[in-house]
Amino acid sequence: MKIKVGKFLIESLDDKTIQILIEKRNRIIWEGNISDIEITFYHPEKTISRVPSMILVLPVEHLSVNIVSRHDNGEINNLYEYLVSHGSVVNLHSIFTAGAVSHSTIRKEAEINKAKLKAKRVIEKENKKEEAKKEREIKRQIRAEKAKIDLANRRRRAGCKEMKEEKYTCTVCHTVWYSNDMDKIKNIHNALTLSNYSVNHMKDISRCPKCGSRASSHKTVTYWVDKKGNCVDREE
User: What pTM does this model have?
Assistant: First the structure.
């Protein structure tokens, strides 16, 4: 298909692609899919301007091309039928205003919806940034509070001797007892002595002294003792 209308030469490159150029300047103003063309106005007979015309909207920032010819011999009608039969969109929302055509195109509506979606995504992105900022601030405050507590502990424990004990809790009768390094040393000493007396006095540290059960849990308890022997802090 090759049609000359007014100053335009419209030529089909294949069944899906079309090329529109200004014939005198031999300058291509658009080339693309026929289905991307939107026909916003079509009149095969004389209109207000007394000439047949058709307005095409192309997907290049809503570029409008006014196909008009004072000496039309059916070329505009042929072009219209070809475009429609090959997928061009006919926009029924076109209206006349003061003798001109006001374009309220389907693509323009799509662009508006796209802009709204983009604005929504921008807002959501900003909200996520704000939430991340608040979360970082909360973490920073937690770290600052922890650092303050650690500093207070270090000052309180300065010059103190650190001691550790094992705290046992019987899971049967809930009795609590403690064991330190001295108990371990005594067991080792009794084991090395190899006498009946010493072996009989070996102590099972994990056995409950009240009910004799070995079912117990334990945790390490740390003490900080000053030079006078006073416990200034405890942590378990």
Answer: 0.39
